[in-house]
């Protein structure tokens, strides 16, 4: 089934949290005037997540209007402490697809662990058919986090597919516990590197493929940061399971710094 949200003739602002209450649903923008403007979800002091998908399967958030290839969905915070994660996927959710969403200024800069899109899943369902594509995340602490709550030993590639996104954040562009394919993304930096420990990609786990990405602007900040940082011990969750990273590939990516 499909749920259409009105974007008004040019835009429509919603100062509420959208909590998805059903599985197997696509949520998108209206397809005809006066409903195909920009849907703006703006966080408020008592609404710390813009869109919440909790223990629901195969939910698609499609920021387009009628498949036009444009971002008609915008998410931001209404005040400096109004939003933690713009989109949060939790519990036993499988098959979440997020595409064509513009996320900016959606987390308090005093925090070091808030994301534009955050997967925090139970280890029994982690990395099953999830996808984030064609999103633009900027002026946020972190971009995308793919993690589980208890730690897991990954045994396959591609449970997460993260591709064709633009990520320009204060801290990390993407963090993941593994089981992820990251490709055709554009990574750059926002700010001077004083928030967190900025990396383009920070990986804690195994079965990771990183390819065809564009990294730029990382030498312009301080702090000894990395374009791709692989946690030597496998990260906190991996250490609990006495699991060391394996099956890790970085290929065909462009690393460029201006003179």
Beta percentage is: over 45%
Please compute the radius of gyration using only Cα atoms. 18 Å
**Strand count:** 24
Low-confidence stretches: 234-244
Alpha-carbon distance between the termini? 51 Å
The helix content is: under 10%
Q: How do the SSEs run, as a string of H and E?
A: EEEEEEEEEEEEEEEEEEEEEEHEE
The major β-sheet equals: 15 strands, parallel
The helix-and-strand class reads mainly beta
Number of helices: 1
Averaged pLDDT, please?
82
| Overall 3D shape | globular
Describe the protein.
It contains one helix and 24 strands. By secondary structure, the chain is mostly beta strands. The chain has a 15-stranded parallel β-sheet that branches. Strands 2-5-8-11-14-17-19-21-24 form a nine-stranded parallel β-sheet, with no helix packed on it. Mean pLDDT is 82; it is low at 234-244.
Question: Layout of helices and strands, plus pairs?
Answer:
Blueprint: E1 2-5, E2 11-14, E3 18-19, E4 25-29, E5 38-43, E6 49-54, E7 59-65, E8 73-77, E9 85-91, E10 97-99, E11 101-104, E12 115-121, E13 130-133, E14 136-138, E15 142-148, E16 160-163, E17 166-169, E18 174-183, E19 186-189, E20 199-211, E21 214-216, E22 226-230, H1 235-240, E23 248-251, E24 254-256
Parallel strand pairs: 1-4, 2-5, 3-6, 4-7, 5-8, 6-9, 7-10, 8-11, 9-12, 10-13, 11-14, 12-15, 13-16, 14-17, 15-18, 16-18, 17-19, 18-20, 19-21, 20-22, 20-23, 21-24
Key descriptive features of the protein:
259 residues, mainly beta, nine-stranded parallel β-sheet, 1 helix
Short account of what is shown:
The chain is mostly beta strands. It has one helix spanning 235-240; strands spanning 2-5, 11-14, 18-19, 25-29, 38-43, 49-54, 59-65, 73-77, 85-91, 97-99, 101-104, 115-121, 130-133, 136-138, 142-148, 160-163, 166-169, 174-183, 186-189, 199-211, 214-216, 226-230, 248-251, 254-256. Helices cover 2% and strands 48% of the residues.
């Amino acid at each position: 089934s499909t749920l259409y949200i009105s974007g008004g003739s040019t835009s429509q602002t919603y100062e509420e949290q959208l909590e998805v209450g059903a599985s197997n649903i696509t949520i998108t923008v209206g397809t005809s005037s006066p409903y195909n403007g920009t849907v703006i979800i703006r966080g408020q002091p008592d609404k710390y997540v813009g869109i919440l998908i909790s223990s629901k399967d195969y939910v698609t958030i499609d920021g387009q209007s009628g498949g036009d290839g444009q971002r008609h969905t915008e998410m931001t915070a209404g005040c400096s402490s109004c939003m933690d994660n713009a989109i949060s996927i939790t519990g036993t959710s499988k098959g979440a697809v997020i595409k064509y969403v513009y996320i900016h200024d959606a987390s308090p800069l005093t925090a070091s662990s808030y994301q534009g899109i955050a997967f925090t899943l139970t280890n029994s369902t982690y990395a099953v058919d999830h996808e984030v594509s064609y999103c633009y995340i900027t002026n946020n602490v972190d971009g995308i986090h793919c993690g589980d709550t208890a730690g897991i030993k990954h045994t396959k590639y591609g449970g997460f597919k993260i591709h064709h996104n633009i990520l320009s954040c204060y801290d990390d562009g993407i963090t993941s516990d593994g089981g992820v394919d990251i490709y055709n993304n554009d990574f750059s930096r926002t700010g001077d590197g004083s928030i967190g420990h900025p990396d383009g990609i920070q990986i804690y786990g195994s079965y990771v493929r990183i390819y065809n990405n564009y990294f730029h602007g990382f030498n312009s900040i301080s702090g000894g940061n990395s374009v791709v940082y692989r946690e030597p011990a496998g990260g906190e969750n991996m250490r609990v399971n006495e699991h060391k990273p394996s099956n890790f590939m970085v290929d065909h990516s462009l690393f460029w710094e201006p003179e």
